[in-house]
Design brief:
5-stranded mixed sheet; 4-stranded antiparallel sheet; single chain; alpha+beta
Length: about 180
């Protein structure tokens, strides 16, 4: 859940309204591909509930990671415009918030304030992922100690994260289903 809180800590209420207008909640059945290795995705996804496996199909389905509620899926390919290096498959019935790629690209080109906040939010998520990877390689604290991890943030960031949780909950409550 931490990554989505980092993401929403950077967005304002107008940004949330846009996500409500353009995003859709989708129920993903078990064992369904959300993204396929080598194919550009039509959307950016936020996992609301459930879990997914990230695998490299071209390497005998080597599992790279598990994704659960509060994770963003497809952000790396969205940033660098290259197709994903891995596939993402649901492990159970899951719910995602789907943000259509073309509508998001258009919004980013037309609204510089939104664009700035969105890219900073993505950067915070990617930075957190990189820090987690470095820690799992044995260069830091136990990555499962969330309280310790959030303790590294200043008090203003912790307050932002609390507000971000309220924003995320409001968004999920107000976005329409598919």
């Amino acid at each position: 859940m931490k990554k989505i809180l980092l993401f929403f800590s950077e967005l304002n209420n107008g940004d949330l309204d846009w996500f409500v207008q353009k995003g859709k909640k989708e129920t993903i059945q078990p064992n369904r591909l959300l993204m396929r290795e080598g194919q550009v995705s039509e959307a950016l996804y936020i996992v609301v509930s459930g879990s997914f496996s990230v695998v490299i199909e071209s390497q005998d389905h080597k599992e790279l990671a598990m994704i659960s509620a509060g994770e963003i899926v497809g952000e790396v390919s969205f940033i660098d415009t290259r197709p994903p290096l891995a596939s993402v498959r649901s492990l159970e019935e899951s719910v995602v918030l789907s943000i259509p790629r073309m509508q998001l690209l258009s919004k980013l080109q037309q609204d510089l304030g939104f664009s700035s906040r969105f890219y900073r939010a993505i950067c915070l998520c990617l930075s957190d992922r990189l820090r987690g990877t470095v820690n799992r390689l044995g260069y830091g604290y136990d990555g499962d100690d969330l309280a310790l991890h959030f303790g590294e943030f200043g008090q203003s960031m912790i307050s932002n994260l609390e507000l971000a949780e309220a924003k995320f909950n409001w968004l999920i409550k107000n976005v329409r289903g598919s």
